[in-house]
Amino acid sequence: MARRGSWRRRAVLLLILAMVAGAVYTAVAFLQRSETLVTERCTAAGSGSAELATDQAANAGLIAAVAVRRGLPARAASIALATAMQESKLRNIGHGDQAGPDSRGLFQQRPSQGWGTTEQVMDPYYATNAFYNALVKVSGYQSLDIADAAQRVQRSAFPGAYAQHEVMARAFASALTGQTPAGLECTLRAPDEAGDPAAVQERLSASFGNVPASAEGRVLQIEADGPLAWAVAQWAVCNAKALSITEVGTGGQSWTRETHDGWKASDAPAGQVRITVAEAPRQ
């Protein structure tokens, strides 16, 4: 009888352990799915890897898209991204500092030094083009160190500061100019509102210029191939939070907002970029 009682106690103990393990597994699975615990961020990987907040990544997408639109090399985008990160943390700020009290915008350009009006340098599109206008006048900028090229444009009191952002700048520039396919992903919570393909197309055209696109339902389809397709696709991922984008696909791969696991093989065709926006959230 003692032996039978011992087996019963063991069986009960095993049952309790199994129940506890099941409860722990369920709790962990729930926490992993919980939207409140998702840390929103964008990550780029290439020759190095780096991470940006979603608003910083959207500005990085604009800076790189303008380089693509102008036919500039990825190196130009790297220099611009390192510069903007040092000057403004890649945010369109409306104030300067003690050294430059009238500095404004992504690149902290000073109206008093001929960069344009305050309103102009606060326009990210204008400011980015103004930076590139100055950069292309720097002889041999493509062969210069990123920090050296940035300093020749900005003439900062702290010329060595740009170098600390080179890894980030190269990683995001490579992905956002399409040189590194599937090199950028963003981890995002579920969208708060419905997306609008027309709004995506408007922002896309402002960044890249006239790229052929058409909308059907919640899907915007862009005709693009090669590096341009990947530049557009990864720009869309960077803007997914602001534009309520849920899926982006091109060249046999797709990024899906809800899975949080980067680019995966899919039936997305080459020669096109498909951007899907969110439906209205359920009440």
What do these coordinates show?
The protein has 283 residues and is an alpha+beta fold. The protein folds into two domains: 44-176; 190-277, no CATH class. Helices cover 45% and strands 14% of the residues. It has ten helices and nine strands. The chain has helices spanning 2-33, 54-69, 74-88, 118-121, 124-135, 146-154, 166-176, 197-208, 226-238, 240-243, and strands at 41-45, 49-52, 184-187, 213-216, 219-223, 245-250, 253-256, 263-265, 272-277. Helix 3 (74-88) crosses helix 6 and helix 3 (74-88) crosses helix 7 (166-176). It starts with a helix and ends in a 6-residue tail after the last strand.
User: Into which percent range does the helicity of residues fall?
Assistant: 40-55%
Number of individual domains: 2
Low-pLDDT stretches: 23-33
- Broad shape: globular
Q: How widely separated are the two ends?
A: 60 Å
Radius of gyration: 24 Å
Provide the residue-averaged pLDDT: 90
The number of helical segments is: 10
Please give the number of β-strands: 9
Helix- and strand-based class? alpha+beta
Sheet with most strands: strand arrangement: 4-5-9-6-7-8
Could you give a short account of the major beta sheet?
Answer: 6 strands, antiparallel
Proportion in β-strands: 5-15%
SSE order, one letter for each helix or strand: HEEHHHHHHEHEEHHEEEE
